[in-house]
Structure formats: structure tokens, C-alpha cells
Structure to design on (303 residues):
């Protein structure tokens, strides 16, 4: 990749060009009010209404781009990040970066999987086998921890077909929905790493304009993530059971209580709940005497 210099006043963010994280990453930016036109057609895109440029690359390249300071930020899975970090540690080139935020998407696990018909009683059965993976560092670390001697075969993609091709006995690959394994008649037997998407940041200090832009971006991001877990709840409550009903509301402070026109025995209650409102909660509220219970999503929040 040719060297790209970073402009002083615009943040540069690396995103996965196409894959598991790309849609969610762009959706997150959109929720933060950042508009990008015709994404993915170019390598580098300028946001229209925010001082940020987006570089679309392979997810495996993102840790390096951030660690080397070509990009200030990157959205990447911790699977790819941890693999890159281990590799750097082995080469003695540990880079300056940190995880700025954990994100609410991209959950998956790195798992060892073998052909469905192959018996498996425990990790010791891996002894002496060949394991195909795109994550040699994480796989090797797990095998060392488990004191298993096995051969690790590196493949950059299509790992799931390695057993059929006779390239390996076992694979170590990412599992999200599990449909890739199922389609290839493989079954996961051990989870070796749990992954989620994170916002990665280069550790060096940013120039004033960029630093200010990042502050705004992070505030919006926190607002979006917080709003996703938060609900607005409205209900009618008999005055007599108001205290009991307030106690049932998950993670809410100081609800608003309003009079109900034409009914002296009841009040309307509005509250922001910072935790998920489940059907069970609604049923308990109903049992306690609440009626007309509405649970509404919150789009944005700033506290
Ligand atoms: C992973 C993995 C599988 C698939 C598993 O690829 O290599 O192919 O996702 O998902 P599933 O359990 O829902 O079927 P990824 O999207 O990370 O692409 P990449 O390896 O090309 O970066
Ligand atoms: Zn990848």
C-alpha cells in the first residue's frame, strides 16, 4: 500500500471495505450524524458534514494502519486486533495504540471445528493434528496454553474447505451465525477467543482540530450506544400502587408523574429506563395495576 499522509485538520478512520463489520460500521457513523456519499466506491472518502475521512480496506490491514499512524482511528474486530498485536509482540514491534471504545456489534467467536463425523472427547484429541487457520497467533497461543502439539497451517481465506481438500484435519475460524460451519459439515468444539468490534485509536497526541473533532465523535457515539439500551416508558398507574410500580422500572430515575384527565385515582407515569424492558417487566407492571403501558425507542441521548 502506498504511504498516505494524514491531513492536519481531518480525522482518518479505517473501515472494513466489505465483510461482517462494514454495514454496521457505516450505520454507526450515520447514527452519529456523519454523512458519506456513495460509500465503498473509492478507497478514501471525505465525510460531507464532519472533518473525517474514511479509508476502506481489508479488515486485516486495519490494526497496522492504526498502529503505524496512517489512520488515527479504525473499527475492527478484537479477533483481528489481538492477532495483529500478538504478531507485533513476536516481531518486537509493539505499536502505540489503544481501544477507545467497545462497540455493540460484530460479536463472534474464534472456534476450533472439525468434520461432523469425527469423534471428539476433548482438547487432547487435537494432539498431532493439522489445524488450518487465518489466525495462527491466537491458535498457537491456545495450543501452547493447553500443552497440545499440533501443526498450524496458515490460510488467508476459505479456511472452511481445508478439511475437504485434505489440507488439514481441523480448522480454527470465526463463527458468527454458524451457517458457514453447517454448510461445510463442520462442528465447533472449542471456543478459543470471543470477539467484538472496537474503535481503535493511535496513541499519539492529536492536533487541536482533530482532537476537538474526536471529542465530538465520541460524545455522539456514546449517545448512540446509550440510547440503544435505553427505552422511554409511559403508563397509567393507580395512585395507590405508584410506589410499587416505580420500583419495577428497570434503571430509571425520577419518573415524571402527570395527572390523568377525568380520573382522580390514577396518574400517568413517564420514565427513561436505562436497561432493557422485557415482556416479563411489562407483565409485572400490569400485575401491579399499571395499564396502557407503552415502551418507546430513544433515538439519541445527551446527558
Ligand atoms: C468469517 C469466517 C466465516 C464467517 C463465519 O469471515 O471466516 O467465513 O465469517 O460466519 P457465520 O458463522 O455467520 O457463517 P469474515 O466475515 O471475518 O471475513 P474475512 O475472513 O474474509 O475477513
Ligand atoms: Zn479478514
Amino acid at each position: 500500500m502506498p504511504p498516505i499522509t494524514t491531513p492536519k485538520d481531518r480525522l482518518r478512520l479505517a473501515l472494513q471495505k466489505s465483510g461482517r463489520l462494514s454495514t454496521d460500521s457505516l450505520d454507526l457513523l450515520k447514527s452519529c450524524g456523519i454523512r458519506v456519499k456513495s460509500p465503498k466506491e473509492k478507497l478514501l472518502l471525505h465525510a460531507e458534514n464532519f472533518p473525517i475521512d474514511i479509508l476502506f480496506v481489508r479488515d486485516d490491514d486495519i490494526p497496522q494502519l492504526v498502529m503505524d499512524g496512517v489512520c488515527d482511528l479504525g473499527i475492527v474486530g478484537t479477533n483481528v486486533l489481538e492477532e495483529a498485536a500478538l504478531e507485533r509482540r513476536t516481531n518486537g514491534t509493539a505499536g502505540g495504540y489503544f481501544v477507545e471504545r467497545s462497540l455493540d456489534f460484530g460479536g463472534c467467536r474464534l472456534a476450533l471445528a472439525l468434520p461432523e463425523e469425527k469423534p471428539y472427547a476433548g482438547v487432547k484429541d487435537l494432539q498431532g493434528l493439522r489445524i488450518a487457520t487465518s489466525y495462527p497467533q491466537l491458535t498457537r497461543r491456545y495450543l501452547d496454553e493447553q500443552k497440545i502439539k499440533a501443526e498450524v497451517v496458515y490460510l488467508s481465506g476459505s479456511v472452511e474447505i481445508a478439511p475437504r481438500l485434505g489440507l488439514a484435519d481441523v480448522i480454527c475460524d470465526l463463527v458468527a451465525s454458524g451457517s458457514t460451519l453447517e454448510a461445510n459439515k463442520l462442528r465447533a468444539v472449542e471456543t478459543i477467543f470471543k470477539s467484538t468490534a472496537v474503535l481503535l485509536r493511535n496513541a499519539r497526541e492529536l492536533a487541536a482540530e482533530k482532537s476537538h473533532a474526536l471529542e465530538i465523535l465520541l460524545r455522539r457515539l456514546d449517545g448512540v450506544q446509550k440510547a440503544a439500551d435505553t427505552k422511554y416508558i409511559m403508563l397509567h398507574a393507580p395512585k395507590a400502587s405508584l410506589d410499587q410500580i416505580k420500583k419495577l422500572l428497570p434503571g430509571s430515575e425520577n419518573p415524571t408523574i402527570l395527572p390523568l384527565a377525568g380520573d382522580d385515582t390514577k396518574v400517568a407515569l413517564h420514565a427513561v429506563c436505562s436497561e432493557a424492558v422485557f415482556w416479563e417487566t411489562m407483565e409485572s407492571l400490569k400485575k401491579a395495576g399499571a395499564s396502557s403501558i407503552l415502551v418507546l425507542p430513544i433515538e439519541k441521548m445527551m446527558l
